[in-house]
């Protein structure tokens, strides 16, 4: 049992780190592809070595992933990067530098709250339902929730310079890339519910 617990922790670290890394906008596409392959292979190897269920392991990993996203967004705020559009709201923040001296939406904090705290609370509540939701459900909720938050935040966030706006300024590339996440997450939830395979319980409460 101790060996399985150690394997479970290693698997969670590999998958969780991979998931958090993949959603970082500042990483180049080639690095994301490489890390995706490494994290998937690492997770599968751990599951096979210790006879763990990959679906349950991935569900466990994404339940804690929003906290890592929250810390990442807070770091973006402290570093004064990925700021929002100009605003006259009382909580507008002057970032200075290339952001100028006008108050802007602290979009990093919006994301930290929504894709971090809110999404984490949703997954925590779902994880405590009895009986446990089927394998893959938590991954679907995480992916869909992240996509929804990213799509909404783009309305108050300055898009990346290399991406910009599309369709005459109606939508950003970030929003366009978020839509497949929403669709994929919803499809995964539907697949998980129809498949209805029970979670494997490795650690008794």
Secondary structure elements and pairings:
Elements: H1 2-22, H2 29-49, H3 54-79, H4 107-127, H5 137-153, E1 165-166, E2 171-172, H6 173-195
Helix pairs in contact: 1-2, 1-3, 3-4, 3-5, 4-5, 5-6
Q: In total, how many beta strands?
A: 2
* N-to-C SSE string, H for helix and E for strand: HHHHHEEH
From the alpha-carbon coordinates, what is the Rg to the nearest angstrom?
A: 19 Å
Secondary-structure-derived class: mainly alpha
Give the averaged pLDDT, no decimals.
Answer: 80
Question: Helix content range of the residues, please?
Answer: 55-70%
**Biggest sheet, spatial arrangement of strands:** 1-2
Q: Which word captures the global form?
A: elongated
Distance between the termini: 15 Å
The main β sheet shows up as: 2 strands, antiparallel
Regions with little confidence, pLDDT below 50 for 5+ residues: none
Description:
The protein is built from six helices and two strands, in the order αααααββα. With 205 residues, the chain is mainly α. The longest helix has 26 residues, at 54-79. The radius of gyration is 19 Å and the shape is elongated. It has helices spanning 2-22, 29-49, 54-79, 107-127, 137-153, 173-195; strands at residues 165-166, 171-172. Helices cover 63% and strands 2% of the residues. A two-stranded antiparallel sheet has the order 1-2. The model has no long low-confidence stretch (mean pLDDT 80).
């Amino acid at each position: 049992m101790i060996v399985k617990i150690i394997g479970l922790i290693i698997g969670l670290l590999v998958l969780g780190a991979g998931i958090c890394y993949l959603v970082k906008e500042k990483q180049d596409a080639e690095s994301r592809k490489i890390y995706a392959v490494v994290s998937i292979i690492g997770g599968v190897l751990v599951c096979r070595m210790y006879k763990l269920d990959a679906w349950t392991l991935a569900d466990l990993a994404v339940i804690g992933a929003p906290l890592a996203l929250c810390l990442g967004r807070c770091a973006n705020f402290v570093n004064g990067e990925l700021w929002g559009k100009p605003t006259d709201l009382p909580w507008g923040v002057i970032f200075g530098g290339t952001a100028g001296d006008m108050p802007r939406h602290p979009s990093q904090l919006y994301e930290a709250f929504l894709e971090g705290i809110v999404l984490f609370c949703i997954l925590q509540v779902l994880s405590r339902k009895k009986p446990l939701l089927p394998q893959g459900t938590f991954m679907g909720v995480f992916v869909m929730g992240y996509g929804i938050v990213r799509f909404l935040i783009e309305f108050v966030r300055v898009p990346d310079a290399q991406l910009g706006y599309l369709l005459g300024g109606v939508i950003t590339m970030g929003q366009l890339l978020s839509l497949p996440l929403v669709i994929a997450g919803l499809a995964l939830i539907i697949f998980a519910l129809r498949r209805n395979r029970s979670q494997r319980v490795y650690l008794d409460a």
